[in-house]
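#onboarding

Welcome to the new folks! Below is a worked example of what a typical request in this channel looks like: someone posts a single protein sequence, and someone else replies with the predicted structure as tokens. Don't worry about understanding the tokens yet, we'll cover that in week two.

Example request:
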Amino acid sequence: MKRERFLGVGVVLLVIMFLFSFSFETTAAPKGKQQYYEIKVYRVNKSTQSERVDNYLRNSFIPALHKAGIADVGVFKPIESDTAYGKLIYV
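Example response:
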């Protein structure tokens, strides 16, 4: 019973993903200009780790992306009122 339900849910999810892929193709970037998105999440335990990741992103990673022709890069951290404050860095 559980296996049949799992398979049914899997088929429904595949159909939904298939339908969404068509809806996104109509709103995609013009032909010849593709866009790629990558989300990196850095988990840090101490403020020293956070400083190291900040230095790496500022001095190495982001300049390397800019040199490779990737102009739009964002770095985000949770605000102080968030429970993830000081624990996560999103790139």
